[in-house]
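Mods, move this if it's the wrong board.
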Amino acid sequence: MFILILNKTVYKQVDYLKLKTLAIAGIKQYWSNTITVAGVRFNVIVNPLHKNSSDAVPVDLEIEESESYGRSMNPAIFGIDASFIYQKGSTKAGIPEKLIDDEFKLVSAHEFGHSILMYVGGISLSWGHKDSTNVLLQNVKSSSPGYPKQGKIDLMKYYNETKNSANLKQRVTDSIAVEVDIKRLIWSSEVLWKD
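Not the wrong board. Structure tokens:
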């Protein structure tokens, strides 16, 4: 089971509460989906918990005040906290706060997903973004496809923007954890099915 420990590294309690709420909402939004098992469709609704637990994913919530992009990350290695960074400084560049909130939810869901990919497939699956990037430098591979022109965008892959780019609004609305990743989440949670 994956649980979050959200560490308060932001400046004000009100900011912490906002980022905590957005991170939890993002994980729920992007990791809830339908799956098919033995020909039967199931709705999977993910409800993240914020608890102190040795099994939890430790996350630092941070705010980037400047216009520079602060990179969120989750190495999914024991002893190193994930960092979900809210791009507050983007408002100086004219990006609406709602879009910044939506991007933070997306980024939180993506970074959370690294813990799942690491658990089920190790560094190559997680850091390699499902074989779409170089594992160490995380450069997008030339063999990676561009963003789909329509339909859903795999939350855990990187896309080659030289082939087809997507704007932030499209990434926010069309990204989702794909079925195989939802099944990985369920499998890694060691769910016991009752009759």
